[in-house]
Design a protein that fits this description.
Structural class: alpha/beta
Number of helices: 8
Shape: elongated
Distance between the termini: 40 Å
Radius of gyration: 18 Å
Strand content: 15-25%
Order of helices and strands: EHEHEHEHEHEEEEHEHHEE
Largest sheet: 5 strands, parallel
CATH class of the largest domain: Alpha Beta
Amino acid sequence: MKSRIVIVEDEPAIAANYADMLSRQGYSVKTFQTKEAASTALQTSLPDLVILDIGLGEHIDGGFDLCRDLRSHSPTLPIIILSARDSDYDVVAGLRMGADDFVSKDVSQQQLMARVSALLRRSQTSEADSQESTLVRGQLILNLDRMSAQWLANPVELTLTEFWMVHALAHHPGHLRTRQQLMDAANVVLDENSITSHIKRIRHKFQLVDPDFDAIQTAYGMGYRWLGVD
């Protein structure tokens, strides 16, 4: 069965170009030009992956709003923000809204396809067989079947990218994980700044449950480690 991709882009020519590129790779693609049309359609049926622009017509930050709404409906839906707005502020805002990846519109077709393929592959294999269905590290519980996380017995709403980063860190507490290793664990193509933003967002989510959370340590210039014991 073809993976279903939705593109939300207010420029018809740009949307058609991306749709054609993805269709030629064997994906089933739908496009929407407005936030309202996309929101209505996605309320009834979610695709396998969504690609969003930030500015949608008169809605300057419509893509951000749609990303946040989609993430509230599904913590595991792969979401890529694809925009000409690529300032640090916009990238951080997009990741905070729950996007799995943020890509500038000047990205090559090959790199965009690699990011789409990586996110879909990770999503489709997230329920693959594992030697353990639950990982427990102190107050942390990761359920690999449900792709859910708990801290101090409270749920922590992580995206798929965030979940696999936490899993990579917590699997061997005290071991350093480089940004590249975290990217590999999440099976997604990101740059170093995006990894940093994801870690900040992960910390924030745990701190909403526990203001004293400090289990993720930064090794400046090298990566991150999970504090604790096996």
